[in-house]
Give the backbone structure.
Amino acid sequence: MFGPNKLFNDIVNTTYCHRDPEFFDSYRFLVEAFNKKFNVRDYDILFIPGSGTIGIEALMFSLKKQITSVGTRGVFQQRWDKKSDYYNKNKKESSSYKIYCQLETSLSEVNSLNGEMVDSISAFPYYDLPAGCKFFVTCSNKILGSYVGLSIVGVRKDCWHDLIDSSVHSYLNLSRYREMGEMNQTPTTAPTHLYTHLGQVVESLDIKKLRSSIDEVSEMLVSAFGPENIIGELRCPVITVNRNIIPDELARKFDLYGFHTGKSTYQFFTYSHDIKDYQDFISEYRKFSNRGLYDYKKSA
């Protein structure tokens, strides 16, 4: 429980394919809803089937410049190190763009930097996009709360000269997604229901309410565990705690995120379940631990 993907029940009926007019309307609606909700009209918003990681790789593939990874050396930053080492071998331009994780999920640590490429996969839209950001990547299934399966890439409109053109025949080439997107289409067979559902989610999203809910759940968890047992941020889309403070019996009962990996921490993604689910866990935790109530607000 409490993992990175939003928990919800839904039944999908796919009645049209990616070359039907209904999909064109759905694609157009999604782009407009995204631009309006998040005020990102300075960017071309591209939707690529796959995880957020696919979006990062597509951006690395498409850039003419080399890529330098900066920021906290967590699991994901190290992943971008390895990926950029591979792609940099084929880059003709010696100048580089900097990429960093806005939220290094593995450590629950926020990077407040000025890199041109921003991994916002676990950060958007709880955190605003940094000023001066030229490229960002997020996904449909985490804080946005839609289905797993769409990477979202934002390319600032004045930065396309730094990307290869559409003549390079690759399904990682962002210029191909841009050209097809102008016709409300995709270069490949698209999972049409993902675009439709994400459009509905984005249109109905209340950003202020979402952020407030994440803060509330964060405070509940910090109050239960005590700040001395929290690793990284105390208000965050992912709260990381020392594994040894939660009994194995309780972790097994709730199937906590990290229980099966053997890592030294558990993680609670503070947006993926209803608040009642967190409350139920905390109630059980207090029975096991006999911990007193930590007054988060008083200490802040």
